[in-house]
Amino acid sequence: MDDVIAACQAALSRKGQVVVLTGAGVSAESGIPTFRGKEGYWTIGAREYHPQELATWEAFERMPWDVWAWYLYRRGVCRAAQPNAAHDAIALLDRKLEGRFALITQNVDGLHRRAGSPIARTFPIHGDIDYMRCANDCVLDRWPIPEAIPALARGEAAGEAHRALLRCPRCGGMARPHVLWFDESYDEPRFFLDTARRIASASALLVVIGTSAQTNLPWQVVTLAARAGATIVDINIEPNPFGEIAETSGGAIRGTAATNLPRLVDAIIHT
Fold first, then answer.
1. Burial 165-199 (b: 16+ CB within 10 A, else e)
2. How far apart are CA 243 and CA 245, in angstroms?
3. Contact 4, 253 (CB under 8 A)
4. Strand order from edge to edge, sheet including 143-144
5. Does domain 1-32+83-126+185-271 have CATH number 3.90.1170.10?
6. Residue limits of CATH 3.30.1600.10 in the chain
7. pLDDT tens-digit readout, 30-80
8. Which of 69, 94, 140, 180 has the CB geometry, 3.0–4.6 Å to 158, for a possible disulfide?
9. Phi-psi region for residue 151, left (φ > 0), alpha (ψ -120 to 50) or beta?
């Protein structure tokens, strides 16, 4: 840890952004099951669907209300969870380094927002499960899912009352969850593609936390930061490709974010 702290302190002496990239490992410490795990499976009729099958535009076109039911259940799981010490440490780092800080997150659970990370400097590149948008893309706006819609129990269907509220406020057509699906691509207006690339290319320090390097844009973020000469630190309970990159730069910490990140942030803000 001491070597990593020293590398971070050296990075702060250079010009450039301080960037944090978070993945599912941070949310797991708040009790949110990882997306691809067994807890994400969903039964419709006699068939059990894997998350990779439901989280697609193709599935939404075929069975929109079944997909909505699954997301409303997952939304309830996320809303029942609380930010942990890692979320709090990131929000603190933002307050202390406001002029040069950015948070890029793969997590759709909204826990960073609830911990106090400001929307202006938080970029959820996979969307936010608390929001919906027009399924027909009549506008790019996003709206909070109405509070009148309760959390669904596992296996519960979306009723008529839910369906009446899950409509686009502009055109009246069906709304969809504001999340990036497996058969969709990153873009700027919805998922901050260009913004994430720009931030990474201007970074002096990149701290990667709890991500297993399975999606494209996080790879771009780490690669662009490395090309920019940024110091890269990886915090994860398991070895991963980002950790291998970090080992040649700032270093890797094998352990939980909630335990290790507060200490690292405390050292950074007191540099």
1. ebbbeeeeebbbbbbbbeeeebeeebbbbeebbeb
2. 5
3. yes
4. 143-144, 127-134, 175-179
5. no
6. 33-80+129-179
7. 999 775 555 556 667 667 788 888 999 999 999 999 999 999 999 999 999
8. 69
9. beta
Kindly state the tokens that stand for 4. 């990593």
Burial label, 37 (beta-carbon count in 10 A; 0-12, 13-18, 19+): exposed
Contact (CB, 8 A) for 107 and 121 = no
User: Which part of the chain is CATH 3.40.50.1220?
Assistant: 1-32+83-126+185-271
Can you tell me the distance from the alpha carbon of 271 to that of 265, in angstroms, rounded to the nearest whole number? 10
Per-position DSSP letters for 102-123, written without gaps between them: EEEE---S-HHHHHT--GGGEE
End-to-end CA distance of the chain: 15
Catalytic center residues? 126
Give tens-digit pLDDT for 159-202. 898 899 999 999 999 999 999 999 999 999 999 999 999 999 99
Q: Which amino acid, 194?
A: D
